Amino acid sequence: MASPLIARLTTVHGIAAVGSAELDAFLAQAGERVLFLTDDPTSNRETNDVAVVLPELMAAMGGRLSAAVADRALEPQLTLRFAVLVLPALLFFRDGLFLGQITRMRDWDLYLRMAADLLGKPGEPVLPDVSAGGA
Length: 135
Description:
5 helices
């Protein structure tokens, strides 16, 4: 069960929830986007903090960044696929390219700087997840 702060992302802020059926389409979409890997909010206190920061980060990026919250069942697959070592994590993408990640809770100024740096990168192609039977 998602925490109220994570649920608020979808109900109040209109951030999509992405399950296995929507994942590849989300990763391939045009534009700049961020995928939130939450971890368990009951055992990782930083999860709720990042849930509060995410809409603020989207606003600070001038509305150019769309977001989704990954289904918790996808986290093992996604942490392997994108070499995520620590959760919670924000994974950044542009036009189907993986730009990088910001893990854990950070100071606001550092979030802004890291997000701007990632969004300025050329990115890497998102490869299919072969562990889940992808091509």
